[in-house]
Model the fold of this input.
Amino acid sequence: MDIDKLIDYNLSLVYKAEGHKFQTNYFENPIGKKITHIVRANEFAKYLINEDLITVDGSFSYITRKGKTISENGGWLKYLEVENGKEKHEINKSSIEYENLNLQKEISILTIENLKLQNTQLRRYIIYSVSGFVMGIVAGNIKEIVKFIATYFAHK
Done:
C-alpha cells in the first residue's frame, strides 16, 4: 500500500471525526480495514506527527492546523501534487535566473566590444577627415606650393 494514499485516507478520517478527535488505534487502510497491530498504528501516528498533520494525546489523535488546511484543500495527495509543482516552478525559476545572468554577462561583454569598435571607427573618421581637409588644401593650392618649393630650392 502506498503510504501517501494511507495518509490521505486517514487524514480525512481524523478531519471528519467529531471535533477532529480520532481514536489512534482506529486508523485504517482505504478499503476500511483497521491497522490492527498497535505498533504499526503507533508508527503510522508518529509519521503523521512528523509531517505535522496530527497531534496525539493519550489514545486520541487531533488534527493540526496544517492537517486541517490540507484536508480542506483536497487532501494529502493534492497537497503533494501542489508542492511538487512548486518545486518544479522554483527549479525552473532558478534556471531562468541563471540563464538571465549569463545573458547579461554576454551582453556586457558584447557592449564593451562594440564600444571599442565604435571608438576605433571614430578615430579613423577623424584621421580621414583631417587628411582629406589637408589634401584638399594641398590640391587647391598645388601651383602655389610648387612655386614656393621651386623658389626655395632656387635660392640655395
User: Anything to note?
Assistant: The mean pLDDT is 85. The domain at 3-73 is CATH 1.10.10 (Arc Repressor Mutant, subunit A).
